[in-house]
Amino acid sequence: MDDVTSWDREDWTGASLSRFEGDDATFNACLFRNAELYNARLTTATFIDCDFSGARLAGSNLFGARLIGCKLLGVDFTDDIVLTGVTFERCQLDLASFRNVSLSKMQFDRCSFREADCTGADLRQARFDTCDLTGLFLQGARLGKMDVRGSDLTGWDPRVLDLTGVVVDAEQCLQLAIALGVVLK
Question: Which pTM does this prediction carry?
Answer without folding.
Answer: 0.91
